[in-house]
Amino acid sequence: NCTTVDDVLSWPVLSLALALNGSANWRGVVWSILLVVGHCALLMLLLRPVLRFVVARAARQQQLSHFYLFCIMFLMLLNSWMLEVIGLSALIGAMEIGILMPRNNHVVGQL
User: Fold this and answer.
1) pLDDT at residue 87 is higher than 60
2) pTM of the entire structure?
3) R_g of the chain, CA atoms, integer Å
4) CB of 38 closer than 8 Å to CB of 51
């Protein structure tokens, strides 16, 4: 899909532009890039299994309870805050949670 390719290519460029804009020197840019790479590794290794667990638990109940909705929204806000601290947009952090959500589950459709 052309839209997917566009998103995959444009978000890293936007992240790099934000890192360059918020930094006074190249050390700051390198530091921002290292933090983003570490953040992505944290998402893939830690947060993705947590989201899978939360969605699987909610699926066993056949509905999305307030607790599981709170967990997902809290993770989204926490991730947005972390990227804002790094120097990127909080919108990118919220989008990352949407990307990491398991797809083939009726509970995700309820979100």
Assistant:
1) yes
2) 0.70
3) 16
4) no
